Amino acid sequence: MKLTKEHKYNLLIIVSIYLLNDLGDFILNHDKGISHFFNMYYFKITFLLSCVIVYALNYLVVLPKFFEKKQFLWVAIAFVLLVPIFSGIRFLLEEVIMYQITHTHNYYLEAQGVLITHLLDSFYYVLIIVIFSSIIYFLFRYFERKEQIHQLQTQHQEAQMAVLKSQISPHFLFNTLNSFYVDLYDTQPETAADILKLSNLLRYVIYETEDDFIALDKEIDFIKDYLHFFKRRYEDNFFVNLNITGNTANKQIPSMILIHFIENVCKHGIINQKDRAANIDINITRDALEIHTKNAINHSDKHHENGIGTDNIKKRLSVLFDNNFELEKTASNSIFEVSLKFPLH
Predict the structure, then answer these.
(1) Pick from 191, 195, 249: which is nearest to 220 by CA?
(2) Cβ neighbours of residue 205 under 8 Å, at least 6 residues apart?
(3) Secondary structure class of 295 (helix, strand, coil)
(4) What sign for the dihedral angle of Cα 138, 144, 147, 148?
(5) C-alpha to C-alpha distance for 252 and 220, rounded to whole angstroms
(6) CA 75, CA 147: separation in Å to the nearest integer?
(7) What global pTM score does this model have?
């Protein structure tokens, strides 16, 4: 496993604290001689290994899997379990393995007394390790989140600039479309209705997606209008099934999130074959939204990697929901599937 910058910093912190502790012990016990210092060094090594294991378990498992997801009961259970884990590792290393080498106990007590002392010591040391590793963990998460927010803001500003550069007097464009709508309303009502839908699509993209969150019902309307124009293009050869379950009212989601997956289906999937129809399922519950898409891969498309831009979506969701979401994508037997689940506002 390749060490990340964060892991390297943690190792540096642990080694630094260990060396400082050694220096302090040497200064306090220098009068007992070098031999005493090295005799105790074996136990320092076993103690360090025990601390590193518990530190890693808390840092890599407990905090990201339970604390980040606010499963505080499991956090408490994990802490209780870390105490005997720490005690067991120390006991195995110090009183079993090291005793066979040095014939020296770290605790000169009866067997039962050794176990009780280990447990009491372990509770104290585990508490210190958990507090210390948690502080380091949340410091890294704070700086990481701060950097993600900065990147998100930068990307948002760049996107806004791109939109501004691509606009040719939006008001003029909307006024023109409105004129066409009025002119065709009586003679060609179907075309007029399409012009109105197109105007709504453009207005939504230009004006209503500036904030991070948007009303869910508006996003659903946008998706339906988007699919409408693909249906107009393919006429009777458009086979995309959109299934929406749940109540969309009074809920908000990140703007332009769902349309990304709809767009990938329409642009990079096969949508004009009845026997290979694409499916888009959106399920809304009280607290979460889940979208699942499934389509045959269009190998004639120059972008063979279905789901282009999904990594950017994942980064955005990480900033908005602090990794409290589930995103999976699979491609097998020329079938591409994506599932996304995230909390609702």
Answers:
(1) 249
(2) 163, 256
(3) strand
(4) negative
(5) 11
(6) 27
(7) 0.51
| 8 A C-beta contact, residue 218 and residue 204 | yes
Give the pLDDT confidence of 49-95 residue by residue, as tens digits.
888 888 888 888 888 888 877 888 888 888 888 888 888 887 787 77
pLDDT tens, residue by residue, 91-134: 787 777 776 766 666 655 454 555 666 677 778 888 888 888 88
Number of H helices, E strands in the chain: 10, 7
Classify residue 192: in a domain, yes or no: no
Hey, is 253 helix, strand or coil?
strand
> Which residue, among 76, 121, 75, 70, has the nearest Cα to 94 in the 3D structure?
121
223 and 96 share a domain? no
Residue with tokens 């990594």: 311
pLDDT band at 197 (very low <50, low <70, confident <90, very high): confident
CATH of the domain at 235: 3.30.565.10
Range of the domain at 59: 5-159
Residue 240, beta-bridge partner list: 278
Structure tokens at 129: 């390790």
If you search the block for the tokens 């699942």, which residue do you land on? 292
Q: Is residue 34 included in any domain, yes or no?
A: yes
Q: Is position 225 within any domain?
A: yes
